[in-house]
Amino acid sequence: MTAFDYVIVGAGSAGCLLADRLSASGASVAVIEAGGRDRHPYLHIPAGYARILTHKALTWGFRTAPDSATGSRALDYPRGRVLGGSSSINGLGHVWGDPSDYDLWAQKGCAGWSWADLAPHFAAYERAEEDGPHRGRTGALHVQHLAELPPLVAKMREAAAAIGLPTPRDMNGPGAEGGREGFSTFQQTRNGRRRHSAATAFLKPALARGVALFDQALALRIELSEGRATGIRIRRGGAEQMVAARREVILSAGAIGSPHLLMLSGLGPAQHLQDQGIAVQRDIPGIGRNLQDHYIARLTWRLADHRWSANRRITWPRLALEVVRWLARGDGVLTWSPGMFGVFAKTEPGLEAPDIQLNGGPLSWAEGRIGVPEDAPGLTIGVWQCRPQSRGSVTLASADPAQAPVIAPRFLTEAADRAALARGIRLARRWMAAPPLAGIVREEVRPGPGVESDADLIRFAAETGGTVYHPCGTVRMGGDGAPLDPRLRLRGVAALRVVDASAFPDIPVCNINATVLAVAHKAAGLILEDA
Ligand SMILES: Cc1cc2nc3c(=O)[nH]c(=O)nc-3n(C[C@H](O)[C@H](O)[C@H](O)COP(=O)(O)OP(=O)(O)OC[C@H]3O[C@@H](n4cnc5c(N)ncnc54)[C@H](O)[C@@H]3O)c2cc1C
Question: Residue 303 and residue 152: Cα distance in Å, rounded?
């Protein structure tokens, strides 16, 4: 048996950053990761994203439980299964949450997690191109503006201004100091021509410092002794072994993996565990509940010609020119990510934070299938509600750790979420009809101008939409009744923390990777204080 001060499960966004910070303190650290090394080239070429969303080896291949609210479809639910976790396969968008997101966390019993508490942790890990005084300049994670601004982006900005939206340069501020609204281009977790994943930014230096990596190792359960987590049982290369923790076990297996592993270990809703034949170690009803995610409906417009759309540029043989450009200059479509520009908007009066994000790029997909460009020039706008009220769950399908859990996001089960999407689609239409886009945006293709009533817009969204890939909240922190206390310790079990997207009490208004990293950065400080 091998023993370390800290044993971290999951080399994803949170796990990589934790490994770096904990090992920098001189502690011995082991990281257990089910996936393998991040050698596949598509993990490093930003646009490779479109090719690996459902890759058999690099993702978990999850699908959701069909739900009548979203057309009774089993939706793809990608999660990274490779060094870097979901940060190695994500859309590279780097977005700080709205200040009110974290102030609401604090109001919900998460002492120490207000905006004022958390903002320094965002700045601490990033190396951003922005000059804003609140942005980080010296952290390990490179955050860069788009390497290329396609002509359509400038027009989209003009069109946003024409419908009365602000157009800040930095999506993460200075508006981030006082609320966020308007059009801006996305910043990317990119270093030059390559994706900058959590593995590249944080795990690489940690491994150089001597952190032990158990890759291709499935965590089977948490070992418990007298109410204390003592290590992790893993299966690697067909053999089982125990990796012991002298100080703490830290779950960073993500919003699906962490509640799954807790339940496999007998920590969760007692009746549900018994139904699966698992001996209950502790009845913790909140584990696997409170699943939150953003739900996106993708709209398509036909553009006047190929100057405005990149559909041809990403199709062979023209794509060959882009490969040369990427190698020679480090820009072009291979540095793009799916969301190149975005709008945060308040579609109702009196809201404290935006309720809608619109995002997109000068590309359109055949029947909405990402990665398969249309022949004709097109543009996609994704519409999603920032603070959905629908809540889902992660439960066990089986006591076998190799079997996927049941993922039920229950998207659009709340009427408020459906109504918000309809408002968002109308806003997107207003944007596309703005005068600066006259002569460029020719016609709406999906859902099409015939789809007009709220009921029809919602039906379109329900039958064609999907996840924005932001599951969180499944082992939430908070006051009494939350599985985690505000130091991210599992209540009732010693030496066990959960540090990843599971710990969020509520979903931030935006893409969540930057917040996962900020949570992990703060958590590392808490863990070291408690050592
Ligand atoms: C396709 C996609 C696009 C996205 N786009 C964006 C974006 O543009 N911007 C943004 O902000 N966010 C985006 N996100 C979300 C963001 O990347 C994630 O929220 C974030 O990476 C989650 O970090 P995490 O540490 O909680 O989990 P993860 O990064 O998912 O890490 C969990 C790790 O644990 C491992 N693991 C799980 N269970 C076990 C087990 N039993 N044994 C061993 N290892 C295990 C997994 O293999 C994984 O490596 C996207 C996500 C996806 C999937």
Answer: 10
Question: Is residue 272's pLDDT more than 70?
Answer: yes
Those residues with Cβ within 8 angstroms of residue 221's Cβ, 6 or more apart along the chain or in another chain: 232, 233, 261, 264, 265, 266, 401
Please report, rounded to a whole number, the percentage of residues in the chain having pLDDT higher than 70.
Answer: 98
Q: Which domains does the chain have, with CATH numbers?
A: 2-529 (3.50.50.60)
Assess whether the C-beta atom of 353 lies below 6 angstroms from ligand 1.
no
Q: Can you give the pLDDT at residue 175? A: 64
At 98, which amino acid appears? D
Signed CA dihedral, 163, 128, 31, 247: sign only: negative
Any atom of ligand 1 within 6 Å of the Cβ of 97: no
Q: What is the DSSP code (8-state) at residue 367?
A: G
**Cα–Cα dist 391/267, whole Å:** 21
- Check whether 289 has a pLDDT greater than 60: yes
Contact in structure between 89 and 43 (CB atoms under 8 Å): yes
CA distances from 145 to 29, 85, 191, 259, 333 (A): 34, 23, 10, 35, 14
Residue in the structure block whose two tokens are 């966390």: 105
State yes or no: is 470 an active-site residue: yes
SS3 160: helix
Cβ(240)–Cβ(234) below 8 Å: yes
DSSP string, 282-326: EE-TTTT--BB--EEEEEEEEESSTTT--TTTTSTTHHHHHHHHH
State the distance from the centre of ligand 1 to the C-alpha of 196, rounded, in angstroms.
14
For ligand 1, mutation pick of 469, 499, 517 (most atoms within 8 Å of CB)? 469
Type and span of the H or E element at 223: strand 217-225
75, 238, 241, 389 from 144: Cα distances, Å: 31, 42, 42, 32
CA distance 183 to 165: 7
- Distance in angstroms between the alpha carbons of the first and the last residue of the chain: 22
Ligand 1 pocket residue status of 299, Cβ below 6 Å: no
Closest to 179 (Cα-Cα) out of 389, 355, 342? 355
Contact 170, 135 (CB under 8 A): yes
Q: How many CB atoms sit inside 10 A of residue 402's CB?
A: 9
Written as one string, the DSSP assignment of 85-114 is GGGGTS--B--PPPHHHHHHHHHTT-TT-S
Q: Is 38 in the pocket of ligand 1 (CB under 6 A)?
A: no
pLDDT per position as a tens digit, 461-471: 999 999 999 99
405 lines ligand 1 (CB under 6 A): no
Best mutation site among 9, 18, 60, 87 for ligand 1, i.e. most ligand atoms within 8 A of its Cβ?
Answer: 87
pLDDT tens, position by position, 107-147: 999 999 999 999 999 999 999 987 788 899 999 999 999 99
